[in-house]
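Homework help board

Subject: predicted structure for assignment chain

Our instructor gave us this sequence and asked us to write out the predicted structure in token form, then describe one feature. I got the tokens but I'm not sure how to describe them. Can anyone check?
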Amino acid sequence: MMATQSNSPAIRQSIAVIGSGYWGKNLVRNFAELGALAAICDTDKATREALAAQYPGCRAVADFAEVLQDDSIQAVSIATPAETHGTLVRQALLAGKDVLVEKPLCLIEDEARSLVALAKQQGRLLMVGHLLWYHPAILKLKELIDSGELGRIQYVYSNRLNLGKIRREENILWSFAPHDVSVILGLLGEMPDAVSAQGGNYLHQQIADITVTMLAFPSGVKSHIFVSWLHPFKEQKLIVVGDRKMAVFDDMEKKDKLLLYPHSIQWKGQIPVANRAEAQPVELDKAEPLREECAHFLDCLKTRRRPRTDGEEGVRVLSVLQRCQEALERKEPKPVRTPSPAPRPWFAHGSAFIDDGVEIGEGTSIWHVSHVLKGSKIGRSCKIGQNVVIGPNAVVGNGVKVQNNVSVYEGVTLEDHVFCGPSMVFTNVFNPRSEIPRMSELKPTLVKRGATLGANCTIVCGTTIGRYAFVGAGAVVTKDVPDYACVMGSPARVSGWMCECGAKLIWQAETSRCSCGAHYGKSTAGVSRVPERAAVEEQPAALASVLEG
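My token output:
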């Protein structure tokens, strides 16, 4: 969720912490040390008095309404029981306060969506305390996955186990698992399409003390989350299995919290054999995650930037948690309802790759294993074949057809209704060397409206292909091609002239009339199409003969 600029005359960064119990007292400490704590709100008198003595100069109040009415307080940090989150967040947003709320955002997905919409309407920040996204190890793990260091991700599992803290207002799934769901969704960058869950209720018939959740993702990745408050020791561990390396994040380790294992699997006689390798520690920044989370919230208050764990991220996590709870109660896999994307006016095959930041026109189709890179623009009603690469920053007009195995590189512009035959080649650097970067020396190539580039031809960069020109199959174009010219050979030379309909022109002196009715003339400037009225005026007798015939 992107917040709009505050209507207040100045950013005050004055925070009131709502709820100062088991976790809230940690928020109080951090905001106080960051110089932003203005008030503490808690219904327990002893807690208020103790914190007021510990943080002199900070007001301690019992009534949430008193905080909302105080114009000197810019934002609230809510750390109350989960069932109160939705109501308190709504009241704070309506009072014009920015909000940091501990996980989960609330307990009902529809309510969460309405809170996100309200924050946007009010121009307020809404951030959810998914703490692990402020842990240096998780940020580094995300970086390693995105860079391909681990290879293709195959499996993710997490254990969050302890003896206590046992709750009665929520089960273990809602108490422990939000952190793991948030991290797994963020690391994989996708929502699960199926969920299954099992649990055990040992201390209370209606409250699960242990749950194991399985998530299946559209990419084929599987994940499981094991949470328990009936465990003999504390364990917080996340393992990511890639086909190149495996990563282990162990938050209980004091020194090496993130390790990479470059294990490999080799097949010998059709039998998989595991090859073990030594663990590789990953160097991490030293930072307290909660301090980083609080500082991030303050920075967002100042800059009005979108928080890393904003309300929309909170909705995604809540959506999965709700499906996990339903699966837990029904003891069967439950598909996840993901928001339906807006219908696209263009088609891309499931194996195609479409980067963010591209423009694709209505009616365009993109087929198997093709890739449109960022910054590229493709017009309406284009046909992009198989194994085609476009971009980055290439421009393709309307009605263009690009056949299989063609790469339209940066610097290439195709005007409307250009035809690129199978396996034809564009270049964009005149004198490439592998060891010398020359992307700053790109030479632009322009292919004008209606031109045809035959199969396996090569267009050397820095050239212009004229309107309705025709480049023969296998030709190598090293200089500009005039409008309507047919060029063949290596290097390509003009061998004739073509009509806009694709037929070769037959000349009588300096004029030619195609069987389709189009009329052309030659001059020192080249070949051009003659408007019908001009053609009648120049050759009335010839036209009359045609009409009579």
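Reply (TA_rk): Your tokens look well-formed. For the description, you could write something like this. Confidence is low (pLDDT under 50) at residues 1-11, 535-549. That's the kind of observation they're looking for.
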